[in-house]
Amino acid sequence: MSKVLVTGGAGFIGSHIVEELLNNNEQVVVIDNFSMGSMDNLPKSNQLTVVEGDISVRETISDLFQQNQFKKIFHLGAIASVAASVEDPLHTHQTNLEATLYLLEEARKQGGLERFVFASSAAVYGDEPTLPKKETSAIRPLTPYAIDKFASEQYVLAFSRLYDIPTAAVRFFNVFGNRQNPSSPYSGVVSILTDKFKQLMKKEETTFTLFGDGEQTRDFIYVKDVVQAVFLVSETSDAIGKVFNVGTGGSTSLNELIGLYEEITETTLPIEKKKERSGDIKESYSDISELKSLGFEPKFTMREGLLEYWNKEN
Ligand code: UD1
């Protein structure tokens, strides 16, 4: 039986995709170097094989294809931290771009692939101010992370045009949900807030550092809606050779987000305000008409997503 490969499958979004694939009775192979991911994120299943390895090592990828025949590939493995990419652009490049090319090359050699979905990011838009962000909006990648994501997208789409490999790319907006790692100050803000509210529940003293006035907005999307979007892109023939924004099309300010969380947890979050982060954008939200044309409709409002996330964490 042909298998499904999930790179970065032990990570936040990857593990949710793995879970859904297993629910669909697929035979799944995960490759992860466990730099961010964890075995605890993965369900126990005899349908699942976990390979500990680094996707930036060419032989690791060729071995993987020698041992398996893949029908689909979900490529989520990456150095996910923008800050880390600024610290070490070369290492980021090896993982975030070269590994994409290794996978595409192996897929080309193998033949018979039904879909290759590449996980890109809204970071490719940079500080381009036009709203909402459309797939056709100007691209202004400002960091090594964003540059490699955009370049990978271009390779992925070129492999569809040049070699007829059925690929597609998805640009994630601000994804939140359980298993997102809150450990760094550059972690997703929802995971940081969740951590703070958990501390409050344990009667521990804590303060949330709010950068700016809290009126900055983001298109936060619950991870289950992301899974829905990624599956549509992996199953619909209309998606081939295209790139899709993955957001809700809505926007929530940080102040609104904190208010919702205070309501859900019935606590008040102590806040320390600091000057806005350099490089922060003020507003961001997506135009998701392309994704909707595949049949996508977000199932979770911000509040519903937060509530489910909070209940899973507690
Ligand atoms: C995301 C990336 C960031 C990247 C940016 C540009 C993540 C987690 N972040 O940032 O690395 O540079 O896209 O594409 O992938 N905030 C606080 N207090 C905190 C944490 C965050 O006030 O403790 C604020 C931030 O300053 C920001 C907002 O919350 O204004 C959202 O932050 P974040 O979750 O990092 O998302 P992006 O700003 O979209």
Write a concise synopsis of the structure shown.
This protein folds into 2 domains: 3-174 and 222-246, NAD(P)-binding Rossmann-like Domain (Rossmann fold), CATH 3.40.50.720; 175-219 and 249-286 and 299-313, UDP-galactose 4-epimerase, domain 1 (Alpha-Beta Complex). It is α/β, with parallel strands linked by helices.
Furnish the topology, listing elements before pairings.
Layout: E1 3-7, H1 12-23, E2 28-32, E3 48-52, H2 58-67, E4 70-75, H3 82-87, H4 89-110, E5 115-121, H5 144-163, E6 167-172, E7 174-176, H6 189-201, E8 208-211, E9 217-218, E10 220-222, H7 223-235, E11 242-246, E12 252-253, H8 254-265, E13 271-274, H9 289-292, H10 302-313
Parallel strand pairs: 1-2, 1-4, 2-3, 4-5, 5-6, 6-11, 7-10, 8-13
Antiparallel strand pairs: 9-12
This protein binds uridine-diphosphate-N-acetylglucosamine (UD1).
* Main sheet overview: 7 strands, parallel
The fraction of residues in strands falls at: 15-25%
The count of DSSP E runs of length 2 or more, i.e. the number of strands, is 13
Bound molecules: uridine-diphosphate-N-acetylglucosamine
Q: How many domains, as an integer?
A: 2
CATH superfamily of the largest domain: NAD(P)-binding Rossmann-like Domain
Order of helices and strands: EHEEHEHHEHEEHEEEHEEHEHH
Q: What is the CA-CA span between the terminal residues?
A: 38 Å
Number of helices: 10
Query: What's the gyration radius in Å?
Result: 19 Å
* Fold-level CATH name of the largest domain: Rossmann fold
Shape: globular
**Structural class, from helix and strand content?**
alpha/beta
- The appropriate CATH architecture of the largest domain is 3-Layer(aba) Sandwich
